[in-house]
Amino acid sequence: MDTVLFILGGRPVLLLDLVSSILGFTCVFLAGRNSKYNFWVGYLYTAALFFLFWNRSLYASLLLQPVSLAINIVGHWRWTHPRPEEESAEDRSALKVSMLSWPARVISAVGVLVVAGVWGWTLDRLFPADPHPYLDSVVTALIILAQFLSAQKKWDCWVVWLIVNVTQMALHLSVGNVFMCAVSGIYLINGLWSLKTWIKLYRNNG
Q1: 3-state DSSP call for residue 53?
Q2: What is the Cα–Cα distance from 185 to 170, expressed in whole angstroms?
């Protein structure tokens, strides 16, 4: 997986970069289209990201992967085993799209700031090799929130994913990773499309 495919922005693009990017985009593309199969791809994506972040010394993102795996498993179950009041109008075996209340949104935002601050401070002392511990931690906290909301099929998850995409672009640019920055831009476009798709599902109780 350390095979160099080409050079972009003065940095090598590895086979692992390409594999993780393809898996990641496939996963979010399927999720944006309300497909439960996104979780199967997600399992492979989590494994690929673990090794990718190990290579980049982004330890907060690396340590996120076991948490991501757990959330993925829970989300897989939630999407395919809804309670009666949560069933989609189009498919009784599928979880319908819902939204957070405004108080829940405020609590979520405060939670991200607190977790990112504490985790960034911890990383700065435990892993001095991490070039940007606080930015890395903000991305980590946002991803955890986005994955949790996605697992509950909350429309709001796409708003958080959009913030994640923009923040990740800044993070990858800061370490000179032009390729992954471009990939984050593609995710951003998919996130905008998915935001529109899920609002239609929400209005149709789908």
Answers
A1: helix
A2: 11
CA distance linking residue 140 with residue 120, whole number of Å: 10
Summarised one tens digit per residue, pLDDT across range 98-126 is 999 999 999 999 999 999 999 889 878 88
Q: Which distant-in-sequence residues (6+ apart) come within 8 Å of 128 by Cβ? A: none
Contact 16, 2 (CB under 8 A): yes
Q: Which two tokens stand for residue 24?
A: 């990641």
Q: Which residues pair with 6 in a beta bridge?
A: 13
3-state SS assignment for residue 33: coil
Which amino acid is it at 200? K
Q: Which two tokens stand for residue 84?
A: 């009666």
Copy the structure tokens of residue 183: 């990939």
Count the helices and strands in the chain (H runs, E runs): 7, 2
Give the CA count within 13 Å in the CB-facing half-sphere of 133.
15
Q: CA 128, 132, 135, 141: dihedral to nearest 10 degrees?
A: -40
